[in-house]
Design a protein that fits this description.
Largest sheet: 8 strands, mixed
Number of helices: 11
Number of domains: 1
Strand order of the largest sheet: 1-2-4-3-5-6-7-8
Number of strands: 8
CATH topology: Rossmann fold
Oligomer: single chain
Length: 264
C-alpha cells in the first residue's frame, strides 16, 4: 500500500508492506522513503513496515511556515493514528533519529522499541559545514545529482567506492521517488535539525533502545554514541561496518540487528 494523505494539515507520503509487528522507518535530512530500500523488503517478511517521506522531502508537502523536529514526530503519530496502529517499533536514521528521539520521549505510549541509527548528541563541525555547503549548492541551482555525488564522500566509507554498483543502486533508489529535494525543502529541514536539542528528550526515554552506528561514519562518529547511550536508561550500542549510510553498505548486518532487537 502506498498513499499520500493529509496529516496535521500537510500532505504525507508513505508506504506499507508486510504483516506482523509494526515497524516505522524514518529517513534523514533531504532523504525519502527509498533510502531504506536495501532493508525494507527483508524486514517486511516478518513485520508490517511503514516508511514515510518526512515533510519537505520526497512526495510529502512542504508547508509555507518553518518546520520543526517536533512536527515531524507528530506526523508519525498522526500516521499511526491513520493506520489504526497503537504502538510500533521505530527506527530513525540520522535526522530521522532526532524525530524518533522526540517521538519516544513525548509519545512514549506509541513506541515499544526504539532504534537510533547514525544518531548524535550534537552536530559536529564537519556535518554543519556539509549541510551548509549542500544548501548553498542547491540555492545556486546545482543539479541534485551533482549535489548527491559530493555528499557521497561523507555518506559512505572509503571502501564503498570499490563497489560502484552499490553507489549506482543508491543513486537509482534516490531518483525513483520524484520530485527531487528542493533548496526550500532542504533549508527547512536543516533549520529544524539545527534548532533541535535532543539532550532533554534523550533523558526522558524509557523505551528499550538500540543505538546503531557505522564504524567509519564521519558525519555522526561512533565516538558520539556512548554519550547518547549514557542519557538513555535502557540502551545498548551496536557498530556495524560502513559509514553514515551503513544501511546500504551493510544491509544484511543491519537487518539482522534490527530483527534481533525487536523480536527478542
Amino acid at each position: 500500500m502506498e498513499e499520500i494523505v493529509e496529516i496535521n494539515g500537510n500532505q504525507l507520503h508513505f508506504r506499507v508492506n508486510g504483516e506482523g509487528t509494526p515497524l516505522v522507518l524514518i529517513p534523514g535530512l533531504a532523504l525519502d522513503l527509498n533510502f531504506f530500500s536495501p532493508i525494507a523488503k527483508e524486514l517486511a517478511a516478518r513485520h508490517k513496515v511503514i516508511v514515510l517521506d518526512n515533510r519537505c522531502a520526497g512526495k510529502s508537502g512542504t508547508p509555507e511556515k518553518e518546520v520543526t523536529i517536533e512536527q515531524m514526530a507528530e506526523d508519525v503519530v498522526g500516521l499511526l493514528d491513520h493506520l489504526d496502529i497503537s504502538r510500533a517499533a521505530v527506527f530513525g536514521h540520522s535526522m530521522g533519529s532526532m524525530v524518533a528521539t522526540c517521538l519516544a520521549a513525548r509519545w512514549p505510549e506509541r513506541v515499544n522499541r526504539l532504534i537510533l541509527g547514525a544518531t548524535f548528541p550534537r552536530l559536529n563541525i564537519l556535518t554543519q559545514v556539509t549541510i551548509q555547503s549542500v544548501l548553498e549548492m542547491l540555492k545556486l541551482g546545482t543539479q541534485p545529482e551533482v549535489v548527491r555525488s559530493v555528499t557521497h564522500l561523507h555518506n559512505f566509507s572509503p571502501s564503498a567506492f570499490d563497489h560502484p554498483d552499490l553507489i549506482n543502486r543508491y543513486e537509482e533508489a534516490l531518483c525513483s521517488n520524484p520530485p527531487a529535494v528542493t533548496a526550500e525543502g532542504f533549508e527547512k529541514q536543516a533549520r529544524a535539525l539545527f534548532s533541535y536539542d535532543p539532550a532533554c528528550d534523550l533523558r526522558k526515554i524509557q523505551t528499550k533502545t538500540l543505538i546503531l552506528g557505522g564504524q567509519d561514519d564521519t558525519l555522526t562518529p561512533a565516538s558520539y554514541l556512548p554519550i547518547v547511550d549514557e542519557e538513555i536508561s535502557d540502551s545498548s550500542i551496536t557498530l556495524i561496518p560502513g559509514g553514515h549510510s551503513f544501511v546500504w553498505e551493510s544491509s544484511e548486518e543491519c537487518v539482522r540487528e534490527i530483527k534481533r532487537f525487536i523480536e527478542e
